[in-house]
Amino acid sequence: MRATRFYFIAMLFLVASLGFLTFKIIDPFLTPIMWGIVLSIVFYPLYSFSLRYLKWKWLASLIVLCIIIAIIVGPFSYFTYLLINEVRDISSHMGTGKNEALQNILRDPTVHYLLNWTTNVFNLPFTDADMEKTILDNAALIGKELIGKIPVGLGSVITVFINFIFMSLSIFFMLKDGAAFLLKSRDYMPFSEQQKEKLASQIRDIVISTIYGGVLVAIMEGIIAGIAYTVMDLRSPVLWGAATAAASFIPMLGAFAVWGVIAAYLFVKVSVLKGIEMTLIGVFGISLIDYGVRPILIGNRTRMPAVVIFFSVLGGIEFFGLVGLIMGPLVVALFLSVIEIFRNFEADRNA
Q: CA-to-CA distance for 250 and 159, rounded, in angstroms?
């Protein structure tokens, strides 16, 4: 008995030590590996489709990889370039402390009344003028912080290029060997075959509903919104389009949290016609995707609550960086799936 216990403790210590060392070894490459995982999941249906006509897995994986690279190097790179330029312009403008647009908004009679009402209702120890100054000062501080976070220089370019190479290698081998690896890993799960099948089905449903029904819908809404903002001749349309895509994860409000505010601004500051046009595009173009495309993509699959997706996206971005936009919901989806398996396991055992 003692020998068995000692053997178990020694093996546990050995596995933990080697696992920690393995993590430290791959830690410098976690970001490109995570991007490889995310893009492999997103484009795996295309890889499965190509295998119907190609008998070589490596060729199908290479073709899908070339498609992914073409998308990244083409539209995505151009979008990123535009977004960084718009963020840099706004950050520089805010960093100077001379934000005329924000000043005009704060000095609007309605906003001025709301600031004055807030200070009176909550008995704040400063006037609405002090509040206006505080908002402008914080906007300038945010602008300076954003400028400092924008990557510049040759070092950043080299780092991005190296990570891109590692990501491409990860995508190729995950598409080619990922299914076999996952199938092999099932042997190490402490579940019955029925529970393994249920776990795989739940994970597949939640991943599809989260990535395709959440992230893909957000991207589509952002693209339509960005085009609409460009047509409306708004400043920084790419940035506002990205904000609309991010807002689609907000429970209840969704993308309306951004395009609704922009429509109201057009009504008040530009013209009633522009406001009506933006409202029509928002209702029948942007938000319609939530009610038209999302149900088609998700179907009857298991889905996570909207509030869980919202906080998993925010937490994922905070923890993983930009890749956390998808990795956050993916990790939470896996966690909820495992919890569901344990819940059903306990229910079956008590039955």
A: 33
